[in-house]
From TrEMBL:
SUPFAM superfamilies: ClpP/crotonase, PDZ domain-like. This is Carboxy-terminal processing protease CtpA. Residues 1-25 form the signal peptide. The keyword Signal applies. It comes from Symmachiella macrocystis. The lineage of its organism: Bacteria, Pseudomonadati, Planctomycetota, Planctomycetia, Planctomycetales.
Amino acid sequence: MRCQSLIVAWVLVLSTMALVGPVSADEPAKEAETAKEIKDKDYEMFKLFVDSFEQIDRNYVKEVDRRELMEAAIQGMLRKLDPYSNYISPENLRAFSDSVEQQFGGIGIQVTLDPTTHRLTVAAPLPGAPAQKAGVRPGDIITDIETESTENFDIEDAVKLLRGQPGEPVKIKVLHRGETEPVEVTIVRDIIRVATVRGMSYKEDGSWSYFVDEEHKIAYLHLTTFSRNSYEELKETMETLSEEGIKGLILDLRFNPGGLLSVATEISDMFVEEGKIVSTKGRNTQEQVFSAKKQGTYSDFPMVILVNRYSASASEIVSACLQDHKRALIIGERTWGKGSVQNVINLDYDDSALKLTTASYHRPSGKNIHRFPGAKEEDEWGVMPDEDYKIRLGDREIGNLHSHLAERELFKPSDDEDKGEESKETFADRQLEAAVAYLAAKIDGVEPPKPTTPAKENGDNDEVAKKEDAKVPETKEESKPEPESKPK
């Protein structure tokens, strides 16, 4: 009976498909086959699936959850497509939404596992968030959440307990450094909005200092992702910088995995007065062309965009647009090469979704961005740095850069006893240094210096790095460095 009911369900699907046309036949085949022949062929395919499903459900050596079987079937279909199309289960849908929105209900701390003690440790409280107001400090060990000890917790365990509905309280016990007994703190959760636009360093009040070169008024903005609020954040920051007399801008898109297409076009429009920003085209959608408008454009100062091999998708849209319009110099290394657009489709009667590739996008010049399977180093893909400004980092150096950026973005109050010790550690950011030198020369009206390749140091010079291009994994999820802490 279950098999028959499943087949009946698929017949209803096929009846709908007969009206809109099958999804798997080629165009010449559609013209040659009659509607009945197509329907019969698809019916046989779905019957094969239903029969297989029922055989596994009924006769496999161990009982298998039927939902897990169905989700595995969906995931199997998507694996035949591309690395960016996937199924989002009900359990993961909320986390996915949080990553897009960059806001959630929580207490506003970044936590990590101490590498020595493996205890859950506060890396930093977010400025102005409930945890900071309640007295939580950097370096605090969280010993308990509610009535549960955190001794064997990982970060995801903490996420589940610390996040929740705004307005709901959560009790935690924290052990301050230098003390022997933990103290209990009750914190009322609030909407935590994770900033995606960051500067060079924190001021004492928790706001960002953006100028990397005060004399030349060169500002530095690190955009971590293209989330729902990123455009408004950047717009507000640019208004502040304009009032402070900005003369040059460095937009850091290194390690930026992308995000929303609409936000990428809005940010591109912020710096380009006219012309095409990007175009998208799909099999069942009309071509869309996004064009710039002059109103609200910041075009009266030179710009540099920093990219690396982990800059992808929306990062490549912005980089390619500003490069093609000669609005910004691109410094760094070839970007990831993701020229496809994913649409999130909510599935009916369930809290799950499909993230499905529905279109490809094209830069204003028409050059290809997407790195297709089997693409070679000499092929056209990604966004290349401008001539003489390719500064590629080796694996060790790029790992140090990622740690440096993560450390810099942790807010440490002036009374933090470890602040002085940690500030002694320096990292020579060659790509950023080249950007500052270029912009300072442009502002001074002199010929910009060409960056030089340093002598081999720890195996991390450009010659060594070139040999590593072929080693980059095909999927972004496998290759991006793991975050060292996570906001709650």
